Amino acid sequence: MPITPRLSRKLHQTLGDEAAEELVNWMHRVDARVADVATRGDLAELRETTRADLAELRQEMQVGFANLQQELARLEARLERRLGDLIKWSFVFWVSAVGAIAMLAGVLR
User: Fold this and answer.
1) pTM for this structure?
2) Angle, CA of 96, 102 and 108, to the nearest 5°
3) What is the pLDDT of residue 63?
4) What is the pLDDT of residues 19-72, one digit of tens each?
């Protein structure tokens, strides 16, 4: 309830100047605190904003995870190629080493 000049005069007449000023100041402080309290409408608006933000975040995360899955698939394909190359060169090395040993054994006989 706002403190009107009429109410203030009535309080001064009834309670005296000092008590009326103290009561008016207290009422102003209470009004200021009430203005800071969230209403149901404020909470509903906050809830809707939060839901919209979460939906947007979910969408962004789905896109990000899809991109991550594609990148992981590309990396897996590169790794498989490198592993295949490594096995191929390992085979070439061991065949060459066995051939060199066989030729050396033939020469040393």
Assistant:
1) 0.48
2) 135
3) 97
4) 888 888 888 888 777 767 778 888 899 999 999 999 999 999 999 999 999 999
Residue with tokens 């939060």: 50
Query: Residues 6 or more apart from 12 whose CB is under 8 A from it?
Result: 20
The sign of the torsion formed by the CA atoms of 37, 39, 45, 48 equals positive
Structural domain count, the chain: 1
Q: Examine residue 87 and state whether it is found in any structural domain, yes or no.
A: no
Instruction: Tell me the residue range of the domain where 10 lies.
Output: 1-37
38: tokens are: 């969230």
Name residue, tokens 């904003």. 49
Q: Does residue 98 sit within a domain?
A: no
Q: Is the pLDDT of residue 107 over 90?
A: no
23 is a domain residue = yes
| Domain presence at residue 29 | yes
Contact between 35 and 14 under an 8 Å Cβ cutoff? The reply is no
Amino acid letter, 45: E
